[in-house]
Structure formats: C-alpha cells, structure tokens
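Input/output pair, single chain:
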Amino acid sequence: MPVFTRRRLVAPIVLTIATAVALGTASSAPARSTSRVINGQQVSAAGFTSRWNAVAALTFKAEADTRKAQFCGGTFIAPDLVATAAHCVVDTSKYLILQDGARFSRYNNARSEPAALFQVTAGRRTMSVRDGERIDVAAIRVHPKYDPEINAYDVALLRLVRAPAAATGVVPMSPVLPGEDGIWGNGAGIAPTADRGPWIAGWGFTFLPNDSFFFSGAQHTPINRPTKPQMRPSANPGATTKDARAGKSTANVLEEAALPIQSDSVCDAGGAGSGMGYGRDFDPATMLCAGTLDTSNLNDDNATTNGVDSCYGDSGGPMAASTGAATRLVGIVSFGTGCATRDTYGVYTRVAAVRDFLGVRPTTPVKVAVRPKVTGSAKVGGVLRCTPGKWAGAGRVHVAYRWVRPIGEDDPQSQVIGLADEAYVRLPGSRATTTYRVRASDRGRRIGCLVIASNATTAAAENANLVKVPGKLPVDPEAEPSDDDDNEGEGDGPTPVSVGS
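Output:
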C-alpha cells in the first residue's frame, strides 16, 4: 500500500528504509509506496537484450528471494555505477532543518542508509528466474540538494563492489548528453514514437483501480513510488474483483511502455483536458512529468484505468529515449498521485538537470564518529564551549558551528514545517564560533551547538547535547536587548576547521 503525504497542508510522512530496518527483516517491513508500469507490456528476451540490459533491481541483501527483496529500480550508467531515486535509499531519521532568520538550511537530507543493506540485481528480466547476479553496494551518494519534502533532485548514485560479469549482458546506458535534450522534449513535451520512445520499464504494479475521487481535490497527494520489500500481498477470498486483482498486481517479468512526456506548463498548472497540475510540488528545474490520463468510464470509480504510467515499485527505474544512434537515460521514476489516474501524471527526475552529479563517483560520506559536546556554564553570563566531535569521511573534513535552540511551542513565529526529525533556530545575535555567552533571553530554554561537517562531496550535521539555562522564559520569546554585547569579540560568519580525514 502506498504511504500518503499531503504536501503544503501537513508535514509529509514517508516511510524510509530505516523503518524497515528498525522493524526487523525486509520481509516483515510495513507497506511502502512503490511503482510498476501501468498498461505496459512484458519485455521480451530480445527486447531486454537490445533496450533494457542496463536496468537494475535494487534489493535488500538480507532477503534471499529476489522477487521479495526487490523494492526499487535503477539503471547502470557505468560498469559499477547505478543511478536510482534518492528516496529509495535515503535515511530521513536525522533530517534536520536550521532556521536562521528568514533563511532555512537543510542538513542530513542527503544521508543514505548503510550501503551494506543493499544489493543490485543485474542482468535479470524475470525476478523469479535465478539468472544474472546480485552484487553488493560499496558506497551511496545522494544528491546534496535532495529535498525530501518536494522530491527535488531525487537522485542517488550507487557504486558496486565490482562490475557484473560479462555473462550478464549488462551494457551501461549513458545519461542524456548536452545537446541531446530534444529527445525528451526539453521542457516542451514530446510524443512517443516506436523507434525513439520515450519508454519506461519496471517491475512495479501493473494494475491500480482508478480511485479518482480519492486522488483528487483535498486528497491531491503526491507520493513516492518504491515498493515495500514484501510486495506480493495475498488476495482476500471475500474481496471484490478489483481488490483481488490489486493483490496480484506486481510484475514478475520486466514491463515496458511508451508514453508521452508532458510540457512543464502542463505538469505545473494542468489545463483543459490535461488534468490537474502539481503546482508548487513540481520543480521544472529538476523534474518532468509523463504518461497518459485515464479516460475510462468516468461514472465508475472502480473502473480499470486505461492510462499509461509508472506505479508503485518502479521508483528509481529508467525513462529512456533514443537519439537514433543510442539510447539515453532521460528520467528517473520519482513520485505521483496514484497511478494512471484521470487527474495527474507521474513525475520523474530530470536527468539533464543532474548529469554533472552522475559524473562524480560516490566516496565515503561524512559521518559522525564521536558526537560534539557542549561544556561550560549554562547560567546567564556564563560561557559555553562546543567541541567539534570526530568525523569520518573521504578526504579532509571541515566543520563549522551554529548556536541554536530547538524549535518548539515557545517559537510561535517559526515557519519550519516538514519532514525534519529535528528543527532548530539559530540563537539571535550568536556567532559561528566554538563559544557562546549565555544571555538573559536564554532563560528557561534548552540551547546547544550544531556542528556542520563537510568534505568535497557530502555534508552532515549533528547537534551536541542541549543544556538548560536556569530561570523562566522571557515574556516575549523573541525579545533581545537592544544594547546586548554579550558576544562582542566573537568572529562573524562561519569558521571552518580541518579535523582530518
């Protein structure tokens, strides 16, 4: 079952892989949203060899049954590199937001689950057939601008411990090159042709009843499209026909479909005959949308859709198009509102916007080894000090400091909403240094130090222990003394410090 989020109205709730890990083995994990091709057709052996031999299945290493283990798709773009969707592998349990006046900074949004949890299945067309190879993942890099709240920059790169053997037949698919953007419409949309595409492929759902009423109006709810690890629900003997079919809807053999890419304006605003647009949920700089809408019996919400779309279980999989001489990766399955509904199209990461990212090989990401610590006196006038902690990661790791307090009920003017597990506001007037002099306006609050660490390709943030300042909250939580010079002499702006590799 999909996990529903209502963007712009409430904080989105997306079950991550961390949820599955916390609850035990992959096969015991709760339902997760997934995608699979709606109204496509099975890929033949010849078609797999000629067009889709770069397609990969992301699987949980702990589950021996590959069909049960598969939860997302991916595409080989180099012998040992697989492109997929960020939301397939990201860990949002430490997603953190810092509010600094009108500016919002997001940290740990590009933090992935441990690479050791995953394998990539290469050279397999039929999930239940034990051909191809399952290969361990060595490193994961999530796009540093990935935004789990709107799915902008929804892309990740997996580096495998080795390339597949030649016998698998894997031939990497190049991301669309500069100057080739016409093959996906370059923002204006494009209709499919038999020899040029665009096409999508995946092992996700092939059937979803058109619950158009549920997926429209107030329930216009974009959701990600991975599957839960155990994605073959058993049909209820007393269920209706549509429920029984939904219980047997995931694909065993890879499916494909040709589909049109819609223009940016249709994706954004919709229009007559084109369904609803995504509005602020659509970022034309990093997304494109594609598919055809359902035109079945509009008086029957139980009707089987005749639209074409990716669906739950297809996340991370490819949208491809041909230049005539070569097939290119032009999109990555990201999210949608239902699947092949009457209202909205599926949304894909725009590969043309992230091709530079896909050209940088994943390295060991920045990760905290020893948590930072706040020491000193928490009384008004006392001085607090922040240690940098210890950080691991490839290359030199640099740290910077922000003095903060948690955003809570005493911060009614805060604008922070969203997925963040932690949210902080920078202490007004504080400096980005290792020391902070406690002010009268801090009475009754918990305050702490946020340490931000980065290397050449990744960044992370960790909050040190919070300390409670004795006393009662000021009458005006935002009040600051006009002549406050408690922090006079502190450095202004970030203070990077090298702490090793």
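The chain has two domains: 17-358, 367-498. Confidence is low (pLDDT under 50) at residues 1-36, 209-221, 228-249, 479-501.
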